[in-house]
């Protein structure tokens, strides 16, 4: 099994540009989570999907952030327009049936907004 | 509001020493997970504790869940350089969130 796949691994962009982060969960997992990690705030849950449906998006910082899961094998997190304070490592994780079971994390995307 | 407080934030000790790190909260969790994260990688699950008072052992690592299911500790015996990493605790089912609520972690460095 390839594990959770995220792309790109690194992204450097300028303020105001659109950024799209991609995630392929582990086959057979029906829950997908997007997290953001910074030194100041640690690891924060942004949004959680179950069976491709957004269940909890209370962690999404503001309207500039949006996430989609068009099918069971693909999800995107989009930031438009990006700002320097969005710089962080963004992780995608998947699990079978929610957070009560082990979450498997991808390697993360390190985003730098100049 | 940080639901899970981890202490210490940073810890550097010599190989062979013992250590304990803590994870405390005012919230009750249905279960609590401990993850370890290495630089450039995502967190990897070490253990899940579910029952108040539960103790789980994973080789030299001992995990304990508080009786009230609000706090937990991780004890490492005879630390090795390979134990170096960021140790994160994560609560499940607290504060109304469906995802995991993570602490900020303990950065552990084991020096040879």
Detailed description of the structure:
The complex is a heterodimer of chains A (114) and B (112). By secondary structure, chain A is mainly β. Chain A contains no helices and 11 strands. Chain B contains no helices and 11 strands. In chain B, the strands form 2 sheets. In chain B, strands 2, 4, 5, 9, 10 and 11 form a 6-stranded mixed beta sheet that branches. In chain B, a hairpin with an 8-residue loop joins strand 9 and strand 10. Chain B is globular and about 40 Å long. Chains A and B meet through strand 5 and strand 10 of A and strand 5 and strand 10 of B.
Topology:
The complex is a heterodimer of chains A (114) and B (112).
Chain A: E1 5-7, E2 10-13, E3 19-24, E4 31-38, E5 42-50, E6 53-56, E7 65-71, E8 74-79, E9 88-95, E10 104-105, E11 109-113
Parallel strand pairs in A: 2-11
Antiparallel strand pairs in A: 1-3, 3-8, 4-5, 4-9, 5-6, 7-8, 9-10, 9-11
Chain B: E1 5-7, E2 10-14, E3 19-24, E4 31-37, E5 44-49, E6 55-58, E7 61-65, E8 71-76, E9 85-92, E10 101-102, E11 106-111
Parallel strand pairs in B: 2-11
Antiparallel strand pairs in B: 1-3, 3-8, 4-5, 4-9, 6-7, 7-8, 9-10, 9-11
Key traits:
heterodimer, A: mainly beta, 0% helix, 54% strand, B: 112 residues, six-stranded mixed sheet, five-stranded antiparallel sheet, 11 strands
Low-confidence stretches of chain A: none
Indicate the proportion of strand residues of chain B: over 45%
Q: What's the tally of helices of chain B?
A: 0
Number of helices of chain A: 0
Number of E-type strands of chain B: 11
**Class by alpha and beta content of chain A:** mainly beta
Helical amount among residues of chain B, as a percent range?
Answer: under 10%
Content of β-strand of chain A: over 45%
Q: What would the principal axes of the Cα set say about the shape of chain A? A: globular
Average pLDDT of chain A, rounded to a whole number, is 93
Class from helix and strand fractions of chain B: mainly beta
The string of secondary-structure elements of chain B, in order, is: EEEEEEEEEEE
Written as H for each helix and E for each strand, in order along the chain, the element string of chain A is EEEEEEEEEEE
Q: Provide the residue-averaged pLDDT of chain B.
A: 91
Helix content of chain A: under 10%
């Amino acid at each position: 099994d390839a594990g959770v796949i995220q792309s790109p691994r690194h992204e450097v962009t300028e303020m105001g540009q659109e950024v799209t982060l991609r995630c392929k969960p582990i086959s057979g997992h029906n829950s997908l989570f997007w997290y953001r990690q910074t030194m100041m705030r640690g690891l924060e849950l942004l949004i959680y999907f179950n069976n491709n449906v957004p269940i909890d998006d209370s962690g999404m910082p503001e309207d500039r952030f949006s996430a989609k899961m068009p099918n069971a094998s693909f999800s995107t997190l989009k930031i438009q327009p990006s700002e320097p304070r969005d710089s962080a490592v963004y992780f995608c994780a998947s699990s079978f049936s929610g957070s009560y079971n082990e979450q498997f994390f991808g390697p993360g995307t390190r985003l730098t907004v100049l | 509001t940080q639901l899970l407080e981890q202490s210490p934030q940073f810890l550097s000790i010599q190989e062979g020493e013992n250590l304990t790190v803590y994870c405390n909260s005012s919230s009750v969790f249905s279960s609590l997970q401990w993850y370890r994260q290495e630089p450039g990688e995502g967190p990897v699950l070490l253990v899940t504790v579910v029952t108040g008072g539960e103790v789980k052992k994973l080789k030299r690592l001992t995990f304990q869940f508080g009786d009230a299911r609000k706090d937990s500790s991780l004890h490492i015996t005879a630390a090795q350089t390979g134990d170096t990493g960021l140790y994160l605790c994560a609560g499940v089912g607290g504060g109304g969130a469906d995802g995991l609520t993570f602490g900020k972690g303990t950065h552990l460095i084991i020096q040879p």
